[in-house]
UniProtKB/TrEMBL annotation:
Name recorded for this polypeptide: Anion-transporting ATPase
GO molecular function: ATP binding; ATP hydrolysis activity
UniProt cross-references to SUPFAM superfamilies, sorted A to Z: P-loop containing nucleoside triphosphate hydrolases (SSF52540)
InterPro entries on file: ArsA/GET3_ATPase-like, ATPase_ArsA/GET3, P-loop_NTPase
Database matches in PANTHER family: ARSENICAL PUMP-DRIVING ATPASE ARSENITE-TRANSLOCATING ATPASE, ATPASE RV3679-RELATED
ArsA/GET3 Anion-transporting ATPase-like domain: residues covered: 11-173
Length: 331
């Protein structure tokens, strides 16, 4: 992966404001990273079964399961983390108490514990992800070449990733402290990158900029910015500039419609006026999008643009987005 922007990154954390297509981008990134014969794990933590929906699969169980074959070979595995099962694994790993843990689950104490201390739930989730990043097979090699984490929205990504440090501070000794420090070590290492997904709209862009600032302030490693659902401009920039300034020549457009045989007489004038209004609206939107691009550029992160898929995001569209990422150097 030496020819990519993130050749040294093994944990790709993908976050974004709700509605920006965060899960779609995470899935496409996993496909892109797996291309060429690599093995990638895509992890979901919010319990929405979004990965299963994107890959058109039944709900995923709490196990790592192959869900797709990447372009040019390579496999994408997926894991929908269940905090309760993660806690049972944790109890088995550190205390040898899996059976006792199941008894506690039946009594509702596990859910009680993660409700009283919600940060502990995040520790379990990030811990499972970090374990997958560090895991090695019998041959001593990493089991996964990369792990993609479909993380919580931008508004709470910093607390989600930084909660292990808080828990480690509360637990002075013992397995919880050891576990928390391991997770924190992975999350804050140069092998991790927090990527942001946004749209070219004011609110998502502002939340992205705020999220980047918070992640940096917490000492977490930032990655790139994926601008999703970008609509290609159908008109030359000179025409857009003219339309924004309100100087678009309706008369010239009317003559063009007549010359093309599209309409004639009063009908051509009416159609030209309607088209001129649409062109002006398109130009204003393009101007706003250009301003949002400029705002994102100030963050100083590598940017990638993904097209708006006219037919929605199906499997074919997912592969198209993955190819776009690869062409832009993201994977």
């Amino acid at each position: 992966m030496a020819d990519t922007d993130w050749a040294d990154v093994r944990l790709h954390v993908v976050t974004g404001k709700g509605g920006t297509g965060k899960t779609t981008v995470a899935a496409a990134l996993a496909l892109a990273l797996a291309s060429g014969g690599r093995k990638v794990l895509l992890v979901e933590v919010e319990g929405r079964q979004g990965i299963a929906q994107i890959f058109d699969l039944p709900p995923l169980p709490y196990e790592e399961r192959k869900v797709a074959v990447a372009p040019s070979g390579g496999d994408v595995y997926a894991l929908a983390i269940d905090p309760e099962e993660a806690m049972l694994e944790y109890m088995e790993m550190f205390y040898g108490m899996r059976r006792a843990g199941r008894a506690l689950t039946k009594m509702g104490l596990v859910d009680f514990a993660t409700t009283v201390a919600p940060g502990f739930r995040d520790v379990l989730v990030t811990g499972k992800t970090s374990e997958a990043v560090r895991r090695r097979g019998k041959n001593g090699r990493r089991v996964y070449d990369a792990v993609v984490l479909d993380a919580p929205p931008t508004g709470r990504i910093t607390r989600f990733l930084n909660v292990t440090e808080e828990v480690a501070g509360l637990a002075k000794v013992g397995p919880i402290k050891t576990h928390s420090e391991m997770v924190s070590g992975v999350v804050k290492s140069p092998e991790t990158a927090v990527h942001f997904v946004t749209l070219l709209e004011e609110m998502p862009v502002q939340e992205t900029l705020d999220g980047i600032a918070e992640v940096r302030a917490a000492g977490l490693p930032t990655g790139g910015v994926f601008v999703n659902m970008v609509r290609e401009s159908l008109l030359p920039q000179a025409v857009l500039d003219t339309a924004v300034r309100g100087r678009f020549d309706v008369g010239e457009l009317t003559l063009g419609l007549k010359a093309a045989g599209v309409a004639d007489g009063a009908q051509a004038t009416t159609l030209a006026e309607a088209l001129a209004d649409e062109i002006a609206e398109h130009a204003r939107r393009a101007e706003l999008e250009r301003a949002e691009r400029d705002s994102l550029a100030q963050a100083g992160l590598k940017g990638y643009e993904l097209p708006l898929l006219a037919d929605g995001v199906d499997l074919a569209g997912l592969y198209e987005l993955a190819e776009t990422m690869r062409n832009q150097g993201a994977a």
